[in-house]
Amino acid sequence: MMQWGSFDGVIGRTIAESTPSWPVRPHPGEGAPNVVLILLDDTGFAQLGCYGSTIRTPNIDALAAGGLKFTNFHATPLCSPTRAALLTGRNHHEVGMRSLSNFSTGFPNMRGHISNHAATIAEVLREEGYATFALGKWHLCQMEDASAAGPYGQWPIQRGFDRFYGFLDGETDQFHPELVYDNHRVDPPKTAEQGYHLTEDLVDHAIGFMHDSVSIRPDRPFFLYFALGAMHAPHQAPASYLEKYRGAFDDGWDAAREAWFARQLQMGLLPAGTQLAPRNPGVQEWSSMPENHRRLAARLQEAFAAFLEHTDAQVGRLIAELGRLGQLDNTLIVLLSDNGASQEGGPFGVLHEWKYFNFVAESPDDAVARLDDIGGPNSHANYPWGWAQAGNTPFKWYKQNTHEGGVHVPLIVHWPTQIPADERGGVRDQFHHVNDIAPTIYEILGVTPQPVYRGYEQMPVTGISMRYTLDSPAEPSRKSVQYFEMMGHRAIYADGWKAVTRHQPGVPFDDDDWELYRLTDDRSECVNMAQAEPDRLAQLVGLWWREAEEHGVLPLDDRSIELFGAREQAATADAARGLAGLAGVGAAAAGRYDYTPHPASRHYVYRPPMSPLPAQAGPRIGGQSWDLDATIDRPAGASGVLFASGNQNSGLSLFILGERLVFDYNCFGEHYVADSSIEVPHGRSVVGVRFRRAASGSGHATLVIDGADCGRVEIPFVMYIVSSIGPSVGYDHSSPVSDRYQAPFPFEGFLDRVDIRIISARDAAEAADAATAQATARATMSRQ
After folding, report:
1. Whole-angstrom Cα distance, residue 528 to residue 441?
2. Could you please report the per-residue DSSP string of 537-573?
3. For 659-697, b where at least 16 C-beta lie within 10 A, e where not — what string?
4. pLDDT digit string (tens) for 333-342?
5. Model-level pTM?
6. Following CA atoms 418, 421, 426, 429 in sequence, which dihedral angle do they give, to the nearest 10 degrees?
């Protein structure tokens, strides 16, 4: 008989003539340490207490006091790329993650997932016998593949993790998250009213995973990747934490930057002579701002601080549990941020961050009426540029940019058995990058990644191990060169020098203005030496191009938000132009948001019961005209949601309440509602809505029951991106889009199917012409 697989024993005719053999499972060896990676989101260099802030982070500060603080560590300027580099030890472009995993441009540097030719730390360590767990934010698979239909090949479980609990997209509501457990969607275990918060839930599951592993296989070490949704917007925290910071930031960002900078210098986090960078363009002097602007900005910063202190408390719970299990001393803990503080709150800050992505400026004079909502379930808040720059003290610019404000982040390493007692609490100033974490772990564990993994030849690990820094505080950095690139922003570091350019979208790349800094004594990029040393600048720019060729950076691409859905080219050019014009960004910018119109209307058919959809896997209804028809069989009195997308902060919902059909368009808390003028029939019928967007960016929705128009609402602004919360069919799975019902409000009758058709601009115009012709004909006939 042919033997499948290896067998080292002997098979005779009987058991007496045979010798058994059991395969040996991989094991990393007795005493191999656990590895815990804690990744904060959108946390600037200065925002932790141990890096200068006055925000209370006692548990993270204790990690730093018992370990090492790195003062010259860098990430990429954006979340998905940093995650890709962190988990693979390669540069983000070469593994296919030039920008957000929401995008796929058709080029190798932007596939929207990590290349299978770049095994993750989890894949490598699982082959060595480690248990592997991931919790929190993933954001490393194409979001069009993140629905229950898959494919699942780039989900955490398929990329090396034994267990996963968290969310797949780039952000989620902390009180009503979109949760995935292993390979399936789940609801939160309790509601916000019952005290739910995502970060607490993530730590609960992390502790459960550790207990399961340590209790049953105490000999087996684990790799825990804990990627928090915090501190990404929305900034949301329990009310008790929000109350702690009332009035704490009334002195403003100028005073905070000065105080935090002084603390950084006192702590030895910056070289002597470092300057505090001037305010970024668009950041006003605090004292010159109107009172309402200051009130809103201060309250938004309070929400961020409360969120961070709450996050610190949950990190403390995780660390305390490692100690209680007897695992802390032999656990390598690495804590870092994925990029600098976010600029996505705009110049004034926002109650609803999706206004930023819809190019809508929120008036502070209007927003102050809802100050008490900030930080709670009824806001999707993000702070203004001034507080983001304070978070990046002493640097300039922000997340997305390749200046130090976007890429210079905190890093703490804690490992009691290997960091000598007299070194604990020390600092390390060697230049390093996020792609150096994986090779550091591999060197510590004595692991060599396989050249071929599951049939895929593996690209080289291009990061440099940082293991030497633990023992050699004064040794010069072994990392001599690192490039940066994000949406056209570029930089190159080489032996203490940095050339950097902040690209303007649409400007030819050859026209970019390159700056030059000597970071060894100008960490905050205040003294531009481009004119003094043109030859050095030219050499560094040339080096950038060589690094770009080697690491797959090309082709350069400065598109950003317009890449949502670019693969399918679903949005029409006129919708994009109208949106940009409405936002007041001008004709030149409007052209950057053009899409090639899809050659035909898109038709989606949903057959419930079914799981909720991620926003990018659902119908592309933002900024467009569309029809929705729900085929139902309704007993008398049956109510409920037929289709909903979004949540209580923004979205849309079609539902039956009592005997009427209702459509609610929730535009950042402003509800535009149509009620049907006739009752929904009992028995079988087709009910729906006809949504039309005008060239001006406004629109209207018409209710339809069995082909008859029966209600209409005018909508002054049509959202281009509705929400990060995707749709659900037959119920409302998140916080309720409409204030007319309590979620989930499932439909009580039989919902056979929901049909959604995206209407192209041409089809919409033809339909309008036909409707006009019909109306004219009817009028003519009535006169005859």
Report:
1. 37
2. HHHHHHHHHHHHHHTT-PSP----GGGTTTTTT-S-H
3. bbbbbbbbbbbeebbbbbeeebeeeebbbbbbbbbeeeb
4. 999 999 999 9
5. 0.92
6. -30
